[in-house]
Amino acid sequence: MKEANSHTIERNIAMELVRVTEAAALAASHYLGRGDKTLVDEAAVSAMRHTLGYVRMDGVVVIGEGEKDEAPMLYIGERVGDGTDLPVDVAVDPIDGTTLVAKGLPGAISVVALSAKGSMHCPREFFYMNKIVTGPEAKDRIDINAPVAENLKNIAIAKKRKVSELTVVVLDRPRHEQLLADIRSAGARVKLISDGDIAAAIEAALPEREVDVLMGIGGTPEGVISAAAIRCIGGGIQCKAWPRDDNERKLAVAKGIDVDKVYKTEDLIDSTDVFFSATGVSSGELLTGVRYTSDGARTQSLVMRGISGTIRWIASQHNFERLDKLSFFRPH
Hints:
The protein is α+β, with helices and mostly antiparallel strands and about 325 residues long. It has helices spanning about 15-30, 35-50, 100-105, 150-160, 175-185, 195-205, 220-235, 245-255, 265-270, 320-325; strands at about 60-65, 80, 85-95, 110-115, 130-135, 165-170, 190-195, 215-220, 235-240, 260-265, 275-280, 290, 295-305, 310-320. The chain is globular and about 55 Å long.
């Protein structure tokens, strides 16, 4: 597949994006376990929007929190950045796992992804998509249309393991009853999560992690954001529309959309000019959450660049007394 706008971004803008996810994570972390999802979202969005304004780019939000009239969310079509002549597509998820933060549960992260303008594609006609994600060793051995047992067998062969040694991460939802039965019947292990399938997809794509594959139905925007990270890692994702009802299916068909189309990594992000940053809010398998100290806080972030395949784990110490004097950073 010919890639759009291949390798046009010379600098590693991911190192600027990490400030954005750190700011959102720090802001949201104040509401950990306080039971209010709205406060969590508002704090993260406000911090993310403010800090994005200092990134040297002319960005347009392609994947956001909703439409323009749904303020204070970062809406689809919103211009972000300082207006510098670097046109890019931007995907944001200020908090992947808002419920996790509100309930004080592990695994919430703040996420921003960026790619060359016109290279990020989200099938918005569908709220949900069926997904399968795995790492570089097995990315060419998965087929979302194949039976679960066949996919697990092929992944095991690629990873030089037994099926019984594979761990599949799945969102804990009633809609996955049959999927779980199929995974267990095939002999693989299961890890259920309540929320946060972006973090889970990254876990499945990274080598030598606790999980080997993600399977199941989740949000469409989250699938595209996951694809940005997976493009950097070199793993593979396949998605397929999962209409919620006959009406959603009929509306899509009426627009001439192929409901049975399989979207692969390159269909969702068709450029190697892709950058990704995630910062932990509440500690989970992927990232450590925000930890307060006597003079500030500590964060852990995952920062990636597609063209080089570089993956960085960044541990940061934030001094609130000094940060309060800087206009670009409002951590608390």
